[in-house]
Every structure is written in C-alpha cells, then in structure tokens.
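User: What would this chain look like folded?
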Amino acid sequence: MKIKKFQSVDYFIFVFMLILKMSLVGMMTGTYFGVHLFFVSLGSVLLMTAWTLWISPSKRRWILFFLSIGFTVLILSNVWYYRYFSDFLSVALLIQIPQMGEVGGGLRDLIYPADFLLFTDIVLFGIYLVFNRKKSFNDLPRKSRNRFVVMGVVAGLFFLVTPLAINAGDRDEWLVQDSLSNMRTYFKAGMMGHHVIDIGREINDQWIEEKQLTAAQQRELQQFFDSNRDQPVDETFQDKPNVIVIQLESFQTSVIDQQIDGQEITPFINKFKEEVLYFPNFYHQTHQGRTSDAEFLLNTSFYPLKAGSVYTRYPDHSYDSLPEKMDSQGYETAAFHAFKRDFWNRDDVYSNFGFDHFFSIDDFPDGDIIGLTLNDKDFFLSSVDRMMEMEEPFYSFLVALTSHTPYDFPEDKKELNLNSLEEEIIQNYYHNIHFVDQAFGAMVDRLKEEDLWDDALVVAYGDHDSGLQEPGRDMAEMAEAESAVDYLNLGRKVPLFMKLPDMDTGEVISTTGGTIDIAPTILSLLGEDKGYMIGDNLLDDKANLTVFRDGSYLYDGYYYQADLTTERENGTCYSLETEEQTERANCSPVLYEAASQLRMSDLIIKKNAVGQLKGETVE
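Assistant: Here's the prediction, encoded as structure tokens.
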C-alpha cells in the first residue's frame, strides 16, 4: 500500500528538479526568475508532462529519465546561446546549424564547467534505474492514473493561464505575430512557453499567413517611405567616385586609442581617424545573424530579424539594395569575402542584392591562414588587385574575417606583450585587432599607390562587438565600465570612418547613428534618393533614431533601455552626457516610432514587401 501511495513521487521529483533548473537560468544569464515565471514555468511543465502519470511506474521512470535529458539540454543550450547573443534560441535557427560548424570554436568560451552540474540529478537517476531495473512496482488502477493526469492538466492550465491573464493588458502584444523580442516572450510565458509560441509563429509565418500585402499594409508602407524621403539630397561630387566599403570583423570602438602597458592596439587607425570623417557615436544594430546582419543592414537599410538571419531565412526576397541602386547609376559592383562561396548563403544573397561579381576564397591566392581563412592583409591587397580590373566607377564591398571568434592567433605573429591581461582569449582578441589595423593600413597605402584613393568615397566600419565585454572581465575593467551607458558604449559602439573624394582634412562627426544609416548616407553623398530604406543620412542636421532589436534605442542625447519583463513603456531612460538615469519623458516621444520601425522592417522582410511595392509577383 505504501508503494501505491508514493509510487508517483518520481514524477514530482522530476517536476521539482526541472523548475529548479529553470530558476537557475536567471543566475546563469543575469536575468531574473520571479514569481510570475515560476508559475508559468510550472504550468508549462505540468501540461507538457502530466501524461506520463498515465504510464505504469516501471516504464514512466525511463520516460522521465529521457525527458530530463532533453529538457536539460534545451535549458543549457539557451544559456549558452544567451551568453553570446543576449537572447534565447528560436526554431528559425535550425536552418543555421550547418553554418555554425564552421565557426563553432567560439562555443567553448560560452561553456563553464559548473554548467554540467545541471546533469547531476540525471546521472543519479540513471544509476538508480540501472541497479533497480528488475524491481517490480505495484500499479494503480487505470482510473486512478487517469485521475492523476486530469489533475496534472488542470493544475498546469491554472498555473499557466492565471499569470498570463494577469499580464494580458501588455501593450506590446507579446503573444501575437509582431512581438519585438524572444526575451519578452520568455519573461511572459517562460522558457517552454517561449518555445511553443515560437514554433507556432514560425508555422504561421511559413505556411499559414497570407504572403500578399493587404491594401491597408501597402498603404501604410508606402506612406512611411514617402514621408521618410524628406531629407535633403546633396549634389556633392562633380564626377561619380568609386565607392569602397570595408566591414571590419568584431571591431569595436573601445580598441581605438587604447593602450596596454604603453602599446597602441590600433596605431594606424589612431592617426587615420584624424584624416577622415570619424563618427565616435556610431552603434552596431546586429542581432542573431551578427556578421550577416551587419551586411544586411549595410546593403538594404533594414533591421535584422528577431530570430535567425535574413541570409538563411529569406535569401531570395527583394530589397532596394545599395548595389542595385549603384548599378542603376552605371557602377560595376562586387562583393569580396575570402571564405566559402555558399557560407551563410552569400552566393545567393549577393546575387539577389544585385552584385555583378562575388569574389570568394577560390578567387584569392594562397597565403597565411589566421583564424578561419586567408589573413586580412592578403585579402585586402588581393581585393585591390581585383578592383584595378573593374570598370570605373565601381562599388566594392569587402567583408574582413581575421578577427572573428574564437580569436585564435598564431604565436609567431604576435607583436604585443599582453601578459598583464588575465584572459588568454582577450589577449588574442587584441592581437587580432592589432593585425587587422596593420592590414587596413596596408590597404590604404596600396590604394594610394594605385591612384584609387584620392577620388574615391571610402567607408570602413565595425560589424559588431567582440562579445568579451561582460562585467568582471578584463575588457570591462580596463574601460572602467560601471553604468548602463558604459556597457552600452562598450558593447554596441563600433567605429565608422568616411573618406570623401579629394578630402583634405579630417573631422569628427558627433552625430549618433547606426549601421542602418550607412547606405542612405552614401546615396545622399552621391546625390541619389534612398528609395525603400529605413535609415537616415548621418550628415544632415536631423537627430537620428538608432533602434536596437530588443526595442532599446538612442535619440537626441538619450538612451532608452527596454525592460523586457514588462510593458515597453516601463524601460529606463538615461542621459548619454551624464550617464545618469533621467525622466522617462525625455525618451518617450519616439517610443512608439522605434517599435513601429522594427515591426515595419519585419513585415517588409517576411512578406517580400519591397518586391510587391515595386510591382513584382510574389509567390
């Protein structure tokens, strides 16, 4: 009788351990796990697993064992992913798995030995099952087991639905299609709820929702683009200059003018920025696609998706892209990237963007490999060779790669003594950046030697941060980062340089902006309308709205840090000048515009809206 009374204790231990692990996620990611998350997580677990109470105990224990493994792997995967992207996994990322193998070396830096303590209960449970596999158990009647299942489902519905109902008034409409962030869904529906909702959204996106724009959506988009074309167009240059755009990998602003034990990390760029237009208040806006997001932002002036990369999810959709617009003005266009041609679908995406040529690893001569592929110095110099064969005017887009995670760097090429830094990975990051600085300098010198420099419009920018700036690490300590604004600048600021044709002296442009603004600025300098693009001209007199994927944004001297645990109106406003928290009213005038831009961008990308606005047929 005692066995009958307590034979379901295994299930309740299973539920307890799973909720405990979910609560530990807050500690492991620096997020929180409050009462709301406790109840929605408990409700989700009961709804997803109460059916096992219907199974006989001898079989149920094995089912619970394998469920524990699956749930724990999912929890840890979310933790590891969050440590790099500050976001949780999405089903949209499944199609990116083949890409991750090429750059997976950086994963080891996201895994801490203590993480595997989450498997302790599973190991003990497995040992118990092995040594007690022949032990028989008295079974409850089927009616009693059915009663347990019904009780579990009812309890699960109660614990899940009640907290959700309390938060049903959230104006962010987090349960519907246009939620701005995976993390907002997590903080409302819990980890399991997030994944269930995410799968539902993906099914809706791919197979249910109508791909054709409604008449109302078409009017809304056309009105937005018409009203967004009010910036002045500059007739700056008499002749069409060659345009050269260089994307520097993991190159954040904090490395510029930085010295370690008296050694300059970027000696060339420290001087170079005084000779060109330098934007010290420029921010990257990438998300889960990282480098591919930066390329997408640059060439289309749309935001990255909240889940996955446009390059892998919608590689064939139409955009009013920079290479396409340059081509229409008589430019020969080419993309350069010294890696595999089909990596991240670049061959299809670049062709779709309208590039005339794509030079990948097979088009470059052999040279020293640093990190993933050919070192940036040989890449840059070989790219200049290709440019010399192009018909002028040309647009060249170069994607560098040496300073890519996991930041391995050959010992025989290290020129700096960085032993004062505790973390080897951060030492290697600075070695990589120092090398890229030299490589970029060599490219500039070569362009000058070949008479391709003076008359050209040259743009260089960092694609995203290093991912090494967490509190307590060497990088944060050297930057003396304390405030929210400090960490914003450390993690989001990347350099932007613009060298105009026949430029004599440099200038610091204090305007705030982001990657989404580069293409409209280039087009404005060339006297061209930006067309179907969201970004703004960085060289006009207007304040720019710089939006990040989680709904945070910068505008007119203020930083709005979104609070994903509650309504979007409840974020925190900071002054960029004082770095102090200030009245929320200073940030609120553009709160809804920021959210609207993200939703508008998502609609455009998912429904191939630019193609429809251009009159193309959408399948």
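The chain has 21 helices and 19 strands. If you want, I can go into more detail on any region.
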